[in-house]
Amino acid sequence: MGKVLPLLPTARLCVGRQDAVAPPATSAPHGLTADHPGFPAMGNFLRELAGTLRLTRRRTPNAAAFWELDALRGIAIVMMVTYHLLFDLDRLIPFTAAIEHPFLDIYHPFWDLFQKATAYTFVTLAGVSSAVAYHSAAGRTRPPAQRRARQYKRGLIVFCWGMVLTLITWLVFRGGAYIQFGVLHMIGLGLMACAPLLGNRWLVLATGALSGTAGLWLSRQTWDGWLADFGFWLGFQPAGYAALDYVPFLFYFGLFLLGSFLGILRYQGRTPPQVRSRVAQAMPVQWLETLGQHSLAIYLLHQPVLLAGLLLLSLIVVLL
């Protein structure tokens, strides 16, 4: 995958002639000058953050992935879009309010199970992918410290997008049921939290079992006071808590690490096959694979697209 960079790349910022001599760091307050490594580092990070929204970017040969993981992510994307489409129809589109059909009842037990299965799939696959990045043949060409640094950076990017969703939903819903700790927050934090563990698969499994068990126990309780105020993201859920997306960390980190453990067992030292099987060459599988390769961008963009399309459709129906 090319030269390995630290968590926040520190490429030198050059303005004007490349042979110009930069002023000494002490010439500015607190030692901050135009060539301070923090400035280009932040710029590079922000460009990489924005680059996750590009649906047209292609994988380089060095970034080739295992097709089955991308295809499974694609299935999870289809499940997510299906659920959110029904949610929008049920809650937000006026002309569907009078339609009574179990398929459109987003509170039907089937759709509750469907939603949970989608979240479980996303989180578990994120854990598998973290193990692939660390333990596959391509990943193991780098020292462990650099592999962990890449993991921290990937996690930070995902977590930052989660915070963007927090801000947007807070503004749209005026506080209300906005997203405080959703799937992107959980996956981003999980990627960073698992980085020190990935060197030992049994540590991964043991930590995952403890975290999942603790999270499951917490989910059967209700909490108040400072635990609920500051620990809701861990799983100390307040009574009556409601949010558009809530993925408590401890329970789902258990699923994440289960995926990491399975990923180590399956993909340690492996490289993607050079010749694709007949299943992998099937057109539906390739479509799913493409969706999976752009899962983060689709996750961030699909709701505005769905809402715009459905609102346009409702306007057409009203006018007709």
Q: Mind explaining what this structure looks like?
A:
The protein has 320 residues and is an all-alpha fold. It has one domain. Helices cover 60% and strands 0% of the residues. It has helices spanning 38-51, 67-91, 109-135, 144-173, 183-194, 201-219, 225-231, 249-267, 278-281, 283-293, 295-319. Helix 2 (67-91) runs antiparallel to helix 3, helix 3 (109-135) crosses helix 8 and helix 6 (201-219) runs antiparallel to helix 8 (249-267). It starts with 37 loop residues before the first helix and ends with a helix.
Quick structural summary:
This protein is an all-alpha fold and 320 residues long. It has helices at 38-51, 67-91, 109-135, 144-173, 183-194, 201-219, 225-231, 249-267, 278-281, 283-293, 295-319.
Helicity range: 55-70%
Shape: globular
Low-confidence stretches: 1-32, 60-64
- Enumerate how many helices there are, as a single number: 11
**What is the strand tally?**
0
Mean pLDDT: 80
C-alpha-based Rg, rounded: 22 Å
Question: Quick one: biggest sheet?
Answer: none
Query: In whole angstroms, how far apart are the ends?
Result: 55 Å
User: SSE order, as H and E?
Assistant: HHHHHHHHHHH
What is the subunit arrangement here? single chain
Give the total of domains: 1
Instruction: Determine the structural class based on helices, strands and strand pairing.
Output: mainly alpha
Strand content: under 5%
